[in-house]
Amino acid sequence: MKKLKELYKEKYGKNVINSKVGIECGELLRFVRTIKENDIFFLPNPSEKTIIIGRISGGYKWKQKWDDKCPYLNRRDITWIKTIPRQDLSLKLKHSLVWLTVISLEEHAAEVESLVSGVKPPSPKDQPAQFTGKDLSRRLIERLMKLNPREFEEFVAHLLSVSGFESANRQHVGDKGIDIDGIFTTELVSLSLKVQVKRVSGSLGNNVVLQLRGALGTDEHGVIVTTGTFTRRAIEEAEAEGKKYIPLVDRDDLVDLVLSHYEDLNDRYKSLLNLKKKDVPLPDQFYIG
Fold this sequence. Notes:
The chain has 2 domains: about 1-115, no CATH class; about 135-289, Trna Endonuclease, Chain: A, domain 1 (3-Layer(aba) Sandwich). The chain contains 10 helices and 12 strands. It has helices at about 1-10, 20-35, 90-95, 110-115, 135-145, 150-160, 205-215, 230-240, 250-260, 265-275; strands spanning about 40-45, 50-60, 75-85, 165-170, 180-185, 190-200, 205, 220-225, 230, 250, 275, 285-289.
């Protein structure tokens, strides 16, 4: 590892941050030595909200020049198995795939095997119907859609508050599409956050992104939260190079937020959502009865 770090600095410069050197050298070593033939791997595709599943089908290879247009010199042979929606993953497994590093999924082995085979573990016959995964998400969104637009704004403001924001609803008149003012505070910085809330069942286009971005001041940040989805053009506009980035929280992300902070919601919203919690590990703790 020490020799590898020295070679890294020779390649990319002596002034590279040590933490960056350690992370990237560690990734390379895991790619070369830890990953074995026949290992299953998950590759997140954030723009499509999917997970690409494959199997390592060969050993480590390196060439100074390959006969193709791929820029990567360090390679492993792979066999593609399938692509699945990110929503099919448990909350804990989804969180494990957030980091852009080479990590082990050994602790999720049972779930990985189920996702690869497509065979779900059998459920007990004697217990009432319990809805998890896609069914839970759909029913949770249906219950949020029962709120009127103003009530839904209040719910999102409350959810942001228990997620670590100091937020307050705005007046509807002259708000330029901004529904919630928020202050996100960390140990190092406080950010002014403006939130646009859309209680819809369809898809939102790029005009919503343009409207919010146009209402932001120089030092303000914006986010759009919806019970629906976003079109490809909306996503491209939100992530456009050279423009202020606008995070988009669609129904899947909203469900994740609710499940992550459900215990902190007030009794009014717990009663509305009526989630029940299993006495099992976190990924399988929630269902709607």
